[in-house]
Design goal:
25% of the residues lie in helices and 16% in strands. It is of the alpha+beta class. It has a single domain, classed as Sandwich (Jelly Rolls), CATH 2.60.120. It has a six-stranded antiparallel beta sheet. A three-stranded antiparallel beta sheet has the order 5-4-7, with no helix packed on it. Helix 2 runs antiparallel to helix 4. The protein binds 2-oxoglutaric acid and fe (ii) ion.
Length: 328
């Protein structure tokens, strides 16, 4: 087995460009294959359950993973992906809302070499920010249009600071986007606007049509220039909270599978106060680190009970849609 050493981070480049690809963080066999296995088992058990209760007509088990997931999702609709995600939707949560809190995912959040890399960006007191997702995107030609801007479809232009509450503005929230398999231009890697983190927060507009449901930065603010950023398996793309980014479409035959995780120094607000954060690493107080995946799962279950019990709509970002640039 190869023993990986922690890669060195080119911080000067990150500060200048607002993004940085760091290769060779994860051992594909030791760190990533078990995550894939955990999700394959989940897909198996969900399809068994959904066939049994009539949610879907068949289990698509004869198909390769990408086609199988697409088949299941086309029958279930976008809500069928929620059991795979590692966070909750903002509204409409009930005690029955599913979430995936597997120990392999928790292991990724606390991965030793990943935290060594994160430490080079933000220092040794590291909070895991609960704005986190898994995105397992089948080829887009296999999915209906309603999946655009969901976790399994193409993502519109935004800054991560723009999709969180203003309490995150003065923090050093760092996005860590990591592909489970090679992310390429063909299968829908991310694109960035290099240097866009130096111009502050851009206005985000709510989507108006079905194909643009999500909050996004209008093209006239973003400009024309962007760069696709392929990331090989084992690596990760780090983004400043104000770097404009989007994803390309998955035009390949396979899945485009990634996790997006976020970290920040302990003590800073996360931008999603009702979701649970935890100390992933603390050199000054190691006893404060959360090491038990079951405790992590319990925290999310408590959050679910809270969200299921409230009746008001939660405001998750600062935008109203009345900003002049959104009228166009
Ligand atoms: O993977 C995607 O499509 C979008 C990811 C993203 O916006 C993020 O990681 O902040
Ligand atoms: Fe993002």
């Amino acid at each position: 087995m190869t023993v990986l050493t922690t890669p060195n981070v080119d911080l000067a480049r990150f500060r200048e460009q607002g993004y940085l690809v760091v290769e060779g963080i994860f051992d594909p066999v030791a760190d990533l294959d078990p995550v894939v296995a955990e999700y394959s088992a989940l897909l198996d058990s969900l399809t068994d359950e959904w066939v049994a209760n009539g949610t879907i007509k068949r289990d698509y088990r004869e198909l390769p993973f990408a086609e199988r997931l697409a088949g299941v999702l086309n029958e279930s609709g976008p809500s069928g992906f929620q059991p795979f995600d590692i966070s909750f939707p903002f509204n409409g949560v009930t005690e029955a809302t599913r979430i995936h809190l597997g120990s392999q995912v928790f292991g990724l959040l606390r991965n030793e070499r990943l935290l060594n890399v994160v430490e080079q960006f933000i220092g040794p007191e590291i909070l895991s920010n609960p704005i986190q997702h898994v995105r397992i995107k089948p080829p887009s030609r296999l999915l209906a249009k309603e999946f655009r801007n969901t976790l399994v479809g193409q993502t519109d232009w935004h800054q991560d600071q723009g999709v969180a509450l203003p309490e995150v503005d003065e923090t050093e929230m760092l996005t860590c986007w990591m592909p489970v398999f090679d992310a390429t231009e063909e299968n829908g890697c991310l694109c960035v606007v290099p240097g866009s983190h130096t111009n502050g927060l851009a206005t985000h507009c709510p989507g108006k049509t079905d194909a643009r449901k999500a909050l996004h930065i209008p093209d006239e603010i973003r400009g024309d220039y962007y760069l696709p950023v392929p990331v090989p398996r084992g690596g990760a793309l780090f983004l400043h909270r104000q770097t404009m980014h989007a994803s390309l479409d998955n035009k390949s035959q396979g899945v485009r599978w990634s996790f997006d995780l976020r970290y920040q120094p302990v003590g800073q607000p996360t931008g999603r106060p009702w979701f649970p954060d935890f100390v992933a690493r603390s050199r000054s107080n190691p006893a404060s680190e959360l090491r038990d995946p079951q405790v992590w799962a319990q925290m999310w279950h408590k959050t679910r009970t809270y969200l299921a019990g409230i009746t008001e709509t939660i405001k998750t970002n600062r935008w109203t849609g009345n900003e002049p640039v959104c009228a166009a």
